[in-house]
Write a structure and sequence with these properties.
The complex is a heterodimer of chains A (333) and B (508).
Chain A lengths: L1 H21 L7 E6 L6 H16 L5 E6 L6 H10 L6 E4 L4 H7 L12 E7 L3 E6 L17 E5 L5 H12 L4 E5 L4 H9 L5 E5 H9 L3 E6 L20 H16 L3 E3 L5 H14 L3 H9 L4 E5 H12 L3 H10 L4
Parallel strand pairs in A: 1-2, 1-3, 6-7, 6-8
Antiparallel strand pairs in A: 3-10, 4-10, 4-11, 5-8, 5-9
Helix pairs in contact in A: 2-9, 2-10, 8-12
Chain B lengths: L1 H12 L1 H19 L5 H8 L8 H26 L9 H11 L3 H26 L3 H6 L3 H13 L1 H4 L3 H19 L2 E2 L6 E2 L13 H20 L15 H10 L1 H16 L5 H14 L4 H5 L7 H24 L5 H12 L13 H22 L3 H6 L5 H17 L5 H19 L5 H24 L7 H31 L7
Antiparallel strand pairs in B: 1-2
């Protein structure tokens, strides 16, 4: 008798559980995208565009919302997702793409291992471009070795491509540059170029492109990219021969392919992570999403989780000699 | 140009643009009043909705929302001494002091009217500046921006108490503000300063929780101890008096106008930030006092201390549109979000906006004007009711105020650190009030420290010593000296007059 009851209850429980199991894992749920920056920047804009479209591609069509957790170049947010947030998988992150290099050089305050995060992928990539005022007489990037007086290059500060890229160009391509750092933002440097306070700057192609089209600046050198618009511009790694120089330039360019990397916590259920990966892949083929992203000035290009994992393995396999030199040029702070 | 101006107006008055604007005003109204929802975050939330709108409609919606936040954010500063938007903190000094005297209605009326004047002047400045905006902005390099910050810091002399002791305390408070502004990663070399291993401190001390703590917490504490209503000591019939405030605005119209222009000018300069406009116009309002005795009334409920910052807070919005529109350089984080709106609607900020799309640019000017008129019209009937809130007993009000304070502080970084900063500055603020130290110079140092440091560094790195000889720098240097010396001159003149009259009117 008692046994029958137990069996009956078990069957009932199974029956009750069955529809729930068959139901889409996201139905009725809210997915939160945790962004490591304040509103008004590229990461936040990307997160909000993705939030608008991602739900459509997840089984159960959940609501997707954005939460900003700024601080320490998004280390605060990454620490939160890694250590504090609930491991149910309904929170995903969008953090600084340079965090991986931060871990490589041992930045203080990172309480996480980037390799143990479950990467979802990236819907965009960035290319670093170094550009100078269009009215300057230099034609090829290597002409800048003979620049006299040295070109004043506007930059925000260490840890940003506006600063790091000219720094390695100066060191390895021997360009005659003088870096003026401290500008509050990338747009302020652009203004300084207009008033001829500085002669050039580095930055992401997406942010420089409108000014190149306007004829204010001309691109001189760039990092590797599949973008056909950039075909005619020399690539930094091709202009050096020495192995260490090549290694450092290559390492510095790795995060560009990561673009805007989305990530799930280390303990998120595998089923959800699979769904996220699939949804992000479909998203980058979604015409509505692509149209909106391109209007916002984003280079849409899908990088899969496997590719990210492979990149990380390469980064951590960098010979210590190169890492040592790299540390001199890369300050995550 | 006149054609474009009219065309811009007609575009905004098209039914659907107008409806979007009113909808924006409605949202912005609540966002401004409720702390915990910043104007920038709301703009970011609303941005996706403009996808597919015509540019004029999109900006009517976004700017309508944004321009209202600046006005309604002032209300809590005056009513409860809690800056609703962080940047409206200068209003707390005299606005809340007036409320405590039972003049909440008058302060609100004065604020609303000066906000309207400010917005109109800001819009007019925007419209007038369009033909000359590029040379104007381009003539301001890093050295000039540095000197502008120095001039702002010099206002500390006016915001301090009287006599050598008062000045020393003001200078010390200002220096403390500058020191606090240096916490975090330094902007040039990325070195971590005073961060003590705390990630929270990498980004520096955020102005919002610091100011909320500094000004609001001591007042709430005071209210708890008194256990009465905010305006308990005042006769109740003076609670309203909104019209009196409106009249004040016109009684001191010259000051309101000048502060509006200061706000518009600072708004035009990218890279100075929103708080600067309000504090500099407050400094100017204090300085406009004719005698030292009159000056001492500021901070104790002088209506001019409400008019100045109220006007500047709104006029800077018109100004800060200029760099955003003409150069694609956002003057504030809200403008950075707005810049996203440009791209979504297919507009490219830059010289084209001043030629090919001039009527779209003018439609933005008109949106600012119309949205502010609508807001003021909506707010006026509410003011007497709002003013009566100050007659509520402390035991009922304090929990609500605490909520406002901590929500307001927490929105800075969504971090517990924000709460801690607010409490720390609350204790500091309480001590400063208790022992007669001025709080305004501290905030001025905090607001301007970062700007001054950045542009000094850039000036020296770029120009060596040569920057000191630039004409703009020399002009600002002279102005700075004037700002510094005015209080001394006043005191000297008064002392002379005092001897003649045979009376000593000095009391600390």
């Amino acid at each position: 008798m008692r046994r029958t009851v137990v069996v009956g209850l078990t069957v009932l429980a199974l029956l009750a559980a069955l529809p729930a199991g068959a139901q889409a894992p996201f139905s009725g749920k809210t997915v939160t995208i945790l962004v490591g920056y304040t509103p008004g920047g590229g990461y936040d804009r990307m997160a909000r565009i993705v939030a608008r479209h991602l739900g459509r591609h997840l089984p159960g069509n959940p609501t997707v919302v954005v939460q900003n957790m700024p601080g320490a170049n998004s280390i605060v947010a990454a620490n939160h997702l890694y250590n504090v947030a609930r491991a149910d998988g309904f929170m995903i992150g969008l953090f600084n793409r340079n965090l991986i290099l931060g871990q490589l050089v041992g930045v203080e305050g990172m309480r996480l291992d980037m390799r143990r995060f479950q990467w979802i992928g990236s819907p965009a990539e960035e290319t670093d471009v170094f550009a100078i005022r269009a009215d300057l007489p230099y034609r090829h990037v290597l002409d800048l070795r003979r620049a006299d007086p040295p070109l004043a290059i506007g930059a925000t500060g260490p840890g940003a491509n506006t600063y790091d890229f000219p720094l390695v160009l100066k060191a390895f391509l021997k360009l005659n540059l003088r870096i003026i750092s401290g500008y509050p933002g990338s747009a302020d440097i652009m203004l300084a170029i207009e008033r001829k306070e500085v002669d050039g700057r580095a930055g992401s192609w997406s942010s420089l492109k409108p000014f190149v089209q306007r004829g204010l600046i001309k691109p001189m050198v760039r990092t590797p990219s599949a973008n056909p618009e950039l075909r005619g511009i020399p690539v930094d790694q091709d202009l050096v021969t020495e192995a260490v120089a090549k290694g450092v330039l290559k390492l510095r360019a790795v995060p560009n392919k990561l673009g805007r990397p989305f990530v799930a916590g280390p303990a998120a259920p595998a089923e959800l992570v699979r769904a996220y990966r699939e949804a992000l892949r479909k998203l980058t083929q979604d015409r509505e999403f692509v149209a909106e992203a391109e209007r916002a000035g984003v280079e849409v290009s899908f990088t899969s989780a496997e590719e990210i994992q492979k990149m990380f393995d390469e980064v951590f396999a960098t010979p210590p000699g190169i890492v040592r030199v790299f540390k001199e040029f890369f300050r995550f702070e | 140009m006149v054609e474009a101006l009219l065309d811009g107006l007609l575009r905004v008055l098209q039914p659907n643009a107008l409806v979007y604007m009113l909808f924006g005003v409605f949202i912005g109204f609540w966002v401004g009043i409720l702390p915990g929802l910043g104007g920038t975050v709301t703009l970011a939330l609303m941005l996706p909705f403009v996808y597919g709108m015509e540019p004029v409609q999109a900006f009517a919606f976004l700017l309508g929302m944004h321009s209202v936040v600046a006005t309604t954010g002032d209300l809590t500063s005056i009513l409860f001494g809690i800056p609703g938007e962080g940047l409206s903190a200068a209003l707390v000094l005299d606005g809340y002091a007036m409320t405590k005297k039972g003049e909440a209605g008058r302060a609100l009326g004065a604020n609303l009217m000066s906000s309207l004047v400010g917005a109109l002047v800001g819009a007019a400045a925007l419209a007038a500046a369009i033909p000359v905006v590029r040379p104007l902005v381009l003539s301001f390099g890093a050295p000039e921006l540095f000197m502008l910050a120095v001039m702002g810091i010099a206002f500390i002399a006016s915001l301090s108490g009287r006599g050598a002791r008062g000045l020393a305390r003001g200078a010390a408070a200002g220096a403390l503000g500058l020191l606090v502004s240096s916490v975090g990663q330094d902007p040039q070399a990325g070195i971590l300063r005073y961060t003590f291993g705390q990630l929270y401190l990498w980004g520096g001390i955020d102005i919002v929780p610091a100011v909320v703590g500094l000004f609001a917490l001591p007042e709430i504490l005071d209210l708890m101890v008194r256990r009465t209503s905010i305006a308990a000591t005042a006769p109740t019939e003076k609670l309203t008096g909104v019209w009196e405030g409106v009249k004040d605005c016109f009684r001191h119209f010259g000051l309101t106008l000048r502060c509006s222009l200061i706000g518009a000018f600072i708004g035009i300069m990218p890279g100075l930030g929103g708080g600067v406009a309000q504090w500099m116009s407050y400094g100017h309002a204090v300085q406009s006092a004719k005698t030292a005795e009159e000056r001492a009334r500021f901070g104790k409920g002088d209506v001019r201390g409400v008019l100045g910052p109220g006007a500047a807070n709104n006029s800077k919005e018109g100004g800060s549109l200029i760099p955003t529109v003409a150069f694609g350089v956002p003057g504030s984080s809200a403008m950075a979000v707005l810049l996203g709106g440009f791209f979504l609607t297919g507009l490219v900020p830059g010289p084209d906006m001043l030629t090919r799309h001039l009527s779209v640019t003018y439609s933005m000017v008109w949106t600012l004007v119309l949205a502010n008129v609508v807001t003021v019209a909506l707010c006026f009937p509410l003011l007497p009711y709002l003013a009566r809130l100050t007659a509520i007993r402390a035991t009922r009000l304090v929990p609500f105020l605490m909520l406002l304070v901590f929500l307001g502080a927490y929105t800075a970084n969504n971090s517990w650190g924000d709460i801690l900063v607010a409490v720390t500055f609350g204790i500091l603020g309480y001590a400063m009030v208790r022992f007669g130290w001025p709080r305004a110079p501290l905030v001025l140092g905090l607001v301007l420290g970062d700007v001054a440091e950045r542009y000094l560094w850039i000036s020296v790195a770029r120009y060596g010593w040569d920057w000191l000889g630039r004409p703009g720098v020399v002009v600002f240097l002279v102005l700075t000296l004037a700002v510094l010396l005015v209080p001394f001159f006043q005191e000297w003149r008064e002392r002379r007059a005092g001897y003649v009259l045979g009376g000593a009117a000095h009391a600390d």
